[in-house]
Write a structure and sequence with these properties.
The complex is a heterotrimer.
Chain A lengths: L25 E5 L5 E6 L3 H20 L2 H17 L1 H12 L3 H21 L3 H5 L1 E2 L6 E9 L2 E5 L7 H12 L3 E5 L6 H11 L8 E4 L3 H10 L5 E3 L7 H11 L5 E3 L15 H4 L2 E9 L3
Parallel strand pairs in A: 5-6, 5-8, 6-7, 8-9
Antiparallel strand pairs in A: 1-2, 3-4, 4-10
Helix pairs in contact in A: 1-8, 2-4, 3-4, 3-7, 4-6, 8-9
Chain B lengths: L5 H4 L5 H10 L5 H11 L6 H13 L1 E4 L7 H12 L13 E4 L4 H8 L5 E6 L9 H13 L4 E5 L2 H5 L3 H14 L9 E5 L2 H4 L2 H13 L4 E3 L11 H18 L4 E3 L7 H15 L11 E3 L2 H14 L12
Helix pairs in contact in B: 3-12, 4-13, 4-14, 5-6, 7-9, 11-12, 12-13
Chain C lengths: L36 E2 L1 E3 L2 E3 L5 E6 L4 E7 L3 H19 L4 H17 L1 H12 L3 H22 L15 E5 L5 H14 L3 E5 L6 H12 L7 E3 L4 H9 L5 E5 L2 H10 L6 E5 L5 E4 L5 H13 L11 E5 L3 H12 L20 H16 L3 E3 L15 E4 L6 H4 L6 E7 L2 H9 L6 E5 L3 H10 L4 E4 L18 E2 L18
Parallel strand pairs in C: 1-5, 6-7, 6-9, 7-8, 9-10, 11-12, 11-16, 12-15, 14-15, 16-17
Antiparallel strand pairs in C: 2-3, 4-5, 10-18, 13-14
Helix pairs in contact in C: 1-7, 2-4, 3-4, 4-5, 9-10
The chains are: A alpha/beta, B alpha/beta, C alpha/beta.
Chain lengths: 289, 320, 494
């Protein structure tokens, strides 16, 4: 007689804790073939609100970490994902219906992407900052700084590589994340959250909401304490993307517009994945005796 | 000694308290101070204002000769010029003082007679100030006895730069005492900082306060023997110091930029600065002087241009 | 109060009056050749608009300076078409080094005609001639010089070399010519063509700039100037063939523009409002701090988005600093913008004056202490005296809303962290000032302040090499410096 297995409950990740949805709702998640896998928490607007509060609380501390420290922490995340390869390969296979080989490749690429972004933490300032030779006796320096709380509507298709590709650039630049995962393929995101929870990423720096971008997006886009929003998760829905961009104008969020279709995540990312969430600060000081 | 408010009474008590006080003064940002000085320099002083300013500037000149080659003849000529800067125009004001070495005081005094023009004598081992205190005091007394109305002393820059502020302070106090005449009156004391050697504006502010606390009647930028001599930013900081000193003690101290002020335009820039930084109370020969030699003829040429409407030339003004 | 400590008789024969009154020193208007009316500048020619026209006045006298065409949708469309043609056929095909030479040429003509531009700017805007002459026009020329040199070096910019196409640019009335330069110079250097709308109350220097483009033989259509009000701006922003919108102005309009371009591929940069904190610590170089405060809020009548409108002064020196500040404010000369000794000119419009008056009244009603130096204001024209409010708290409207006038709110703080907290407690984030002689504190503050420009021991400094722009609701994107190229190149979203 076979053992009764213990099924995993997939919950939200807010402020370093794994709560159920405040609303009490969950929804059925199926695998790529339509077979039920598990229930995921259906995040509500109040969960989104709580996530923003948690993110804001964590923002100052994360931004104040040294770039070297952020790089180490992100590299540590890569180590932990590598450590859990079989689990992630299975999760990606299940969510995306990939062959074992392609799922392996996706996990490989995800780990490599984390390593790539980890390395950027202490280099981006040098690449996008500037010393400016002003016409006067002044020291003048332009440096990038994190914009703050970034809402990311995660990609709907690429459950791990896409996910990592939108979270890592926000983290490495010192921003904090409120992520809305893929609606249909949310489970790798929750597993990734479990990795983050056991890594050195401080509580609240990444918050994961499973549920609907169409439902949560408007709340996050119009939230006055969110500084930026990545709309990639609504790629292919220009009407919704436009509505969200309009809502984002309420406090002039930095908007990473939705592409026409979900991008090819295997390509090496461009710097705009990071610079879209940076502010440039220019400091002047006189030079005299 | 003027009575200082209790706020400052204990400042001069020890080297440590003096240092604490001087280093506790607000810093001076050089770039900001220079920008402010330059901005005041863009004031446009025209027509009636210009005429007023030029006459005022003439009346503030300490007509100076401080050369090894000075002779009684040279000093007499200078003194005559001081009384009648423009012999052709009786409305031209006379200058404030004639500034000479101590051995020329008697000659200058005799030539100036009852004109009301003061004789200022540089003293205290001018220009370097490198002599024993006794000699500096003797130098001072000698000039006062010869009839000097004003003494332009130099500070010991070496002592200042090595942080011996109390020594500099006490020396000024001693020289001021040496300015006292037998009848109890005293020559006015101007204290020369040689700001070109002190270099930083922070030092200018500190030395200004040090000198004012020691009882200086005037604070003066330079000997004229070191470059840079007077500059607008240095004078700005000194004007701020006398303004702040009056706010604290209700006592006014005069300011004298000396050396390097050669054109009417420069002189007017200084007057604008006096007007807008220290205030109109200082627009008076009692409280502001120019230490200069060639400036006077430049002012006279401009004055003539204003009265005649045509540009004048050096041949029309006396060279003494 | 004044004493002569020795009793030595004064000397010299000073002029009888010690009052040093500066005689009027008016800059001559004769250099200007003002026309009675102006058309639009489209495709290299001045043309009549299809719409109505409006008058632009001298805010110092309310004298009508000229009648200016109000561009309607068809006019805007014609201008965008001209810009598109010029972009496709001429400007995007021209080598960078050739584009550079046109920009250098423009820079030189601006210098040569600098006095004329300065006089016209002061007439139309109300700003003192010493500012238009010594600040605005030199910065304008420098901006064209700076970006001219980029035109053939874009491969080193980090943003690629591909222009966006046609830029629609809308500029405000506070620095009409300077904002024009900040918009047009980088756009042209990168190979874009532009349609620029100057502000309704200050169109004249932009039209003179159009003449300069003709004088420089700039190919027709590369620069087009459409005058008008909000409707003209809306037509430009929403025109489907505009690839890029650059706007400087109010945060409300900035938000409207962000909404208008939502869902499009139009790129946008916005330079919007501010409510900058100017923070003075107890160890500040006080005299320079006073100058910085004065520059910060009274430069250009306070019509400056990055104005230091909130003075945050450490409580221990508040009294001393305020005394010095008031003395200094007493020397500000308010009056005829064309007088070379004027420090504070006219408020740009009746409407703006009304807003300044209203908010100042609110300040008084809310209990803040209002103070202005004695100050004779001219009878005609739009004038407001340099004003400060003491006893202001973060809860006061005058501490939160942008007044855009010569009105300073004074608040106090006790510790660095309180200063940071108050400084950042605003939806804006354009600029900030810090005054202290302690180097590590400066760097700490510079890091902690959420603002695009931090002036430490200085204020309101601008330079073509130095990026300018805001955090949060103060805008998006940067103007100036290498970063300013990003707004006009395809790779510029890096």
């Amino acid at each position: 007689m076979s053992r009764v297995d213990v099924r995993k409950t997939y919950k939200l990740f807010i402020g370093g804790a794994f709560p159920r949805s405040e609303s009490g709702y969950s929804y059925a998640v199926n695998d790529a073939k339509g077979k039920f896998v598990a229930n995921a928490a259906l995040a509500s607007r109040k969960d989104a609100r709580d996530a923003v509060v948690a993110a804001r609380k964590a923002a100052g501390g994360w931004a104040a970490r040294t770039a070297y420290n952020r790089a180490q922490i992100l590299y540590r995340v890569a180590e932990l994902v590598e450590d859990r390869r079989p689990q992630f390969v299975a999760a990606v296979q299940q969510s995306e219906g990939l062959s074992a080989a392609r799922a392996n490749a996706a996990v490989d690429a995800s780990v490599d992407r984390l390593v790539w972004y980890a390395g950027w933490a202490d280099k981006l300032t040098q690449v996008v900052g500037n010393a400016n030779p002003v016409a006067g006796p002044f020291f003048n320096l332009t440096t990038p700084e994190p914009t703050g709380v970034v809402a990311v509507l995660g990609p709907q298709q690429s459950s791990l590589l896409g996910l990592v590709s939108v979270i890592a650039p926000v983290l490495t630049t010192g921003n904090v994340v409120v992520l809305v995962s893929s609606h249909d393929r949310p489970l790798p995101a929750v597993t990734f959250a479990e990795v983050l929870a056991t890594s050195d990423v401080p509580a609240g720096v990444v918050n994961v909401l499973t549920g609907s971008a169409a439902t949560l997006g408007p709340w996050l886009a119009s939230h006055m304490d969110v500084n930026a929003i990545d709309l990639v998760g609504v790629a292919g829905d220009p009407a919704l993307a436009t509505d969200l961009e309009v809502a984002a104008a309420d406090n002039l969020k930095r908007v990473r517009r939705a592409p026409a279709a979900e991008p090819d995540w295997t390509l090496t990312p461009r710097l705009d994945t990071m610079t879209d969430f940076l502010e440039l600060k220019t400091v002047w000081h006189p030079m005299g005796v | 000694m003027p009575t200082l408010t209790t706020e400052f009474a204990d400042v001069t008590g020890s080297e440590a308290s003096m240092r604490r006080f001087l280093h506790g003064l607000p810093g001076v940002d050089q770039v900001g101070a220079e920008a402010r000085a330059a901005s005041l320099g863009t004031r446009s002083i025209k027509t009636t204002a210009k005429a007023h300013a030029i006459d005022l500037a003439i009346s503030m000149v300490d007509l100076t000769t401080l050369e090894g080659q000075d002779t009684p003849g040279k000093v007499r000529a200078l003194a005559s010029k001081a009384v009648h800067p423009d012999p052709a125009d009786p409305t031209c004001p006379q200058v404030a003082a004639v500034c000479v070495y101590p051995d020329m005081v008697a000659i200058a005094k005799e030539t100036l007679g009852s004109s009301g023009i003061n004789v200022a004598a540089v003293a205290t081992a001018f220009p370097s100030g490198r002599a024993a205190l006794d000699i500096k005091l003797a130098d001072t007394r000698d000039a006062v006895e010869a009839g000097a109305d004003e003494i332009d002393m130099v500070i010991d820059r070496g002592a200042f730069l090595s942080g011996r502020y109390l020594q500099v302070f006490e020396e000024i106090v001693a020289v001021r005492e040496a300015c006292t005449r037998e009848d109890g009156t005293a020559a006015h004391l101007k204290v020369i900082f040689e700001t070109g050697e002190l270099q930083t504006l922070d030092n200018v502010r500190r030395v200004s306060w040090l000198a004012m606390l020691a009882g200086a009647h005037f604070i003066k930028t330079s000997t004229g023997k070191v470059q840079p001599a007077a500059t607008l930013p240095v004078t700005l900081v000194m004007l701020q110091a006398v303004r702040d000193f009056r706010d604290s003690t209700a006592q006014m101290v005069g300011v004298k930029p000396a050396g390097g002020i050669r054109t009417s335009k420069d002189a007017i820039k200084y007057l604008v600065m006096v007007n807008e930084v220290a205030g109109p109370d200082w627009l008076d020969p009692d409280w502001f002087r120019f230490g200069a030699s060639t400036l006077l003829n430049e002012l006279l040429m401009q004055r003539t241009k204003l009265t005649t409407g045509r540009y004048s030339g050096p041949d029309y003004f006396t060279l003494d | 109060m004044t004493t002569d400590p020795t009793g030595t008789a004064p000397t010299g024969t000073a002029p009888t009056s010690t009052v040093f009154e500066y005689a009027p020193a008016p800059e001559s208007r004769s250099i200007l050749d003002l026309k009675a009316s102006y058309g639009l500048f489209v495709d290299g020619e001045f043309v009549d608009g299809h719409g109505s026209s409006f008058k632009t006045i001298n805010p110092a006298t309310e004298e009508v300076l000229a009648e200016v065409a109000e561009a309607d949708d068809a006019d805007v469309d014609a201008a965008v078409r001209a810009a598109r043609r010029a972009h496709t056929r001429v400007w995007s095909r021209m080598s960078g080094s050739e584009r550079a030479k046109y920009l250098y040429r423009i820079a030189r003509i601006i210098q040569e005609r600098g006095r004329e531009l300065a006089v016209l700017e002061s007439l139309d805007n109300g700003k003192p001639i010493k500012e238009s002459r010594d600040v605005d026009v030199p910065i304008v020329a420098a901006h064209f010089f700076y970006y001219a040199g980029w035109a053939d070096k874009l491969e080193h910019s980090g943003y690629g070399t591909t222009p966006l196409g046609v830029a629609g640019q809308i500029i405000p009335w506070n620095f009409p010519l300077m904002m024009l330069a900040w918009k047009i110079a980088p756009a042209l250097a990168c190979g874009n063509t532009v349609v620029l709308k100057p502000a309704e109350t200050t169109p004249l220097t932009a039209l003179l700039f159009a003449e300069i483009c003709q004088q420089a033989d700039l190919p027709p259509g590369v620069v087009n100037i459409v005058t008008g009000a909000g409707g003209t701006g809306q037509a430009l922003v929403s025109h489907p063939d505009v690839d890029k919108v650059a706007f400087t102005g109010s945060t409300d309009v900035g938000k409207a523009i962000a909404r208008a371009v939502a869902g499009s591929t139009k790129r946008v940069t916005l330079e919007l409002g501010g409510k900058a904190a100017n923070i003075v610590f107890d160890d500040a170089p006080l005299d320079q701090a006073v100058e910085g405060i004065v520059d910060g809020i009274f430069f250009n009548q306070g019509h400056v988005c990055c104005a230091g409108s909130r003075l945050l002064v450490q409580e221990s020196i508040a009294e001393e600093l305020l005394a010095k500040l008031k003395t200094r404010m007493g020397t500000l000369r308010v009056g005829d913008p064309l007088d070379k000794n004027t420090d504070v000119g006219a408020i740009n419009s009746a409407e703006q004056l009304q807003r300044i008056r209203e908010l100042s009244q609110v300040g008084e009603d809310e209990g803040a202490g209002r103070w202005s130096p004695p100050c004779d204001l001219p009878e005609r024209g739009f004038w407001f005296p340099p004003t400060l409010f003491t006893g202001v708290t973060q809860a006061h409207r005058i501490a939160r809303e942008e007044i855009f006038g010569p009105v300073l709110s004074v608040l106090t703080f006790r510790t660095p962290s309180e200063a940071v907290e108050k400084a950042n407690n605003t939806p804006y984030g354009l600029s900030a000032g810090v005054w202290t002689e302690k180097g590590s504190l400066i760097l700490h503050m510079a890091g902690a302040l959420r603002a695009g420009v931090v002036w430490a021991n200085t204020f309101n400094k601008f330079d073509p090499t130095s990026p300018f722009g805001g955090y949060k609701e103060s805008g998006q994107g940067r103007e100036g410096g290498r970063h300013g190229l990003a707004a006009y190149l395809k790779g510029g979203d890096l």
